[in-house]
């Protein structure tokens, strides 16, 4: 019998001990984070830090042997239902609910960035024993066995807009871990390189198909990928976002945070495709006040911009 994810966010597998990422490790990581987009990858990174394993690939032997449960619910066995508690943690919507809707465009040197993100990535790398943070050293770390090192090195190269790293970042678009591919895509977008967009589109389509089949292991990564597509003004994200809104499992008030994330991504795409305004207007009637309030705030900003 395979593992099943219950509403309490725990895997119940006969004969297998349940192992959960420690709360203290989560609090430490969450206290360091400012960028909502970064919160999608945190569960896998937290699992690597807590486990203390140098090779924390999603399909690596160490993770299977230790039976580590990722905090966003990803597991080798298909989940029967997404856990609201664990997905909220992975998406960081507790903090996102207090932030303004929309996001700065990722593309180009003129893109607005959180000034603390560079220091955040540098701090994580130094805490892992990496003292040489030169472009050459960071580029070399893109080949590391560690998911954490690959992720933060790619992210830091993007924040520094290190164009000499573009070929290595493009190689990272085929990484086994979705979170690393996502970091590489965002880094490339910072340098006006859209080479990762087709990969993200294919990944999001696969996640959409998995959801139709009742599998949710990649939901948080999929939402993060859709957010990046929206920030990059890719209209291809719109039908995928609409499919999430139409998924019956997410219509339950219990899963409001998925709808909230979708509405925000649609809001980022209004300039690209004004038709999404209809979708956002429909969310004004959402049963959850956080979602309806977010939809109203997005529309209010649009009206103000039109005047």
User: Poorly predicted ranges (pLDDT <50, ≥5 residues)?
Assistant: 1-40, 49-80, 92-104
Order of helices and strands: EEEHHHEHHHHHHHHHHHHH
Biggest sheet character? 2 strands, antiparallel
**How is the largest sheet built, in terms of strand order?**
1-2
Number of helices: 16
Structure classification: mainly alpha
Strand fraction: under 5%
Q: Assign a percent range to the helix content.
A: 40-55%
Task: Present the secondary structure layout.
Blueprint: E1 4-5, E2 11-12, E3 19-20, H1 23-31, H2 42-51, H3 61-66, E4 68-69, H4 84-91, H5 93-96, H6 116-127, H7 135-141, H8 147-159, H9 166-171, H10 178-190, H11 197-212, H12 219-231, H13 237-245, H14 256-268, H15 276-282, H16 289-306
Parallel strand pairs: 3-4
Antiparallel strand pairs: 1-2
Report on the architecture of this protein.
- The strands form two sheets. A two-stranded antiparallel ribbon has the order 1-2.
- It is built from 16 helices and four strands.
- Strand 1 (4-5) and strand 2 (11-12) form a beta hairpin.
- The chain has helices at residues 23-31, 42-51, 61-66, 84-91, 93-96, 116-127, 135-141, 147-159, 166-171, 178-190, 197-212, 219-231, 237-245, 256-268, 276-282, 289-306, and strands at residues 4-5, 11-12, 19-20, 68-69.
- Helix content is 53%, strand content 3%.
- It has a domain at 197-306.
- The relative contact order is 0.11.
- With 307 residues, it is mainly α.
């Amino acid at each position: 019998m395979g593992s099943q994810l219950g509403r309490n966010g725990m895997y119940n597998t006969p004969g297998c001990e349940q192992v959960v990422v420690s709360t203290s490790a989560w609090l430490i990581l969450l206290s360091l984070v400012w960028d909502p987009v970064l919160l999608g990858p945190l569960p896998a990174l937290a699992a690597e830090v807590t486990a203390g394993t140098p090779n924390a690939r999603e399909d690596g032997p160490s993770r299977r042997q230790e039976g580590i449960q990722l905090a966003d619910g990803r597991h080798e066995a298909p989940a029967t239902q997404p856990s609201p508690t664990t997905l909220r943690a992975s998406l960081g919507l507790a903090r996102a609910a207090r932030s303004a809707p929309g996001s700065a465009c990722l593309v180009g040197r003129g893109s607005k960035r959180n000034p603390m993100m560079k220091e955040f990535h540098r701090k994580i790398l130094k805490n892992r024993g990496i003292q040489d943070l030169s472009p050459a050293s960071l580029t070399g770390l893109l080949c590391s066995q560690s998911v954490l090192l690959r992720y933060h090195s790619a992210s830091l190269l993007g924040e520094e807009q290190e164009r000499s790293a573009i070929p290595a970042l493009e190689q990272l678009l085929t990484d086994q871990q979705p979170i690393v591919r996502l970091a590489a895509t965002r880094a490339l977008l910072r340098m006006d390189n859209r080479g990762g967009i087709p990969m993200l589109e294919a990944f999001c389509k696969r996640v959409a198909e998995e959801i139709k089949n009742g599998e949710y292991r990649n939901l948080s990564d999929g939402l993060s990928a859709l957010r990046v597509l929206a920030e990059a003004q890719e209209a291809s994200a719109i039908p995928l976002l609409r499919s999430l809104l139409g998924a019956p499992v997410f219509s339950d008030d219990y899963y409001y945070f998925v709808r909230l994330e979708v509405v925000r991504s649609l809001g980022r795409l209004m300039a690209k495709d004004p038709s999404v305004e209809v979708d956002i207007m429909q969310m004004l009637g959402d049963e959850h006040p956080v979602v309806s309030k977010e939809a109203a705030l997005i529309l209010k900003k649009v009206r103000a911009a039109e005047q």
